[in-house]
């Protein structure tokens, strides 16, 4: 007696988010620098007999450095979903269903390039060509490609989706404002506690 082999459906996976370590470190350093500026500005405000008008410039510089660090290092990402891959940069998000992905290339042009079924390609600035990448032969890029391939192998051809492939402008207003406000807390506290 011959048993019919049933093909098991692909595993359901939670979304996987990938970020560039180099950009995350750079963004983290900018955030640390902004924290230092904010703390120094707060100390100056607490030490001064009368708060200076220039202290608010320190507040804005610290907040701007914090926002820049966040936007550069932590906001952009590659997100792997059951339906496809989402590439978010500072001001835009590109979504590509798995059915449209034909190739993943991390060596050809020194960039992570996703080849589509219509001959076009999509890339991400965190995984672009760079001198550092040339020096280490794009190890991180190749590791990201392996993780994408592993994820894709587990989800199969991808879940059906009504979401169309394409690019949309996404302004990170809420996260940027949150970072800016976090950097204002030490200044507001120092201003409230300052004598006079």
TrEMBL record:
Tell me the lineage of the source organism: Bacteria, Bacillati, Actinomycetota, Actinomycetes, Streptosporangiales
Recorded hits in InterPro entries, A to Z, give: CFP-6_PH (IPR019692)
Protein name stated in the entry = PH domain-containing protein
Classification via Pfam families: bPH_6
What keywords tag this UniProt record?
Membrane, Transmembrane, Transmembrane helix
The membrane-spanning stretches of this chain are 23-48, 54-73, 173-193
Protein source organism: Nocardiopsis exhalans
Domain named Low molecular weight protein antigen 6 PH: residues = 76-122
The question of whether Transmembrane helix is a record keyword is answered with yes
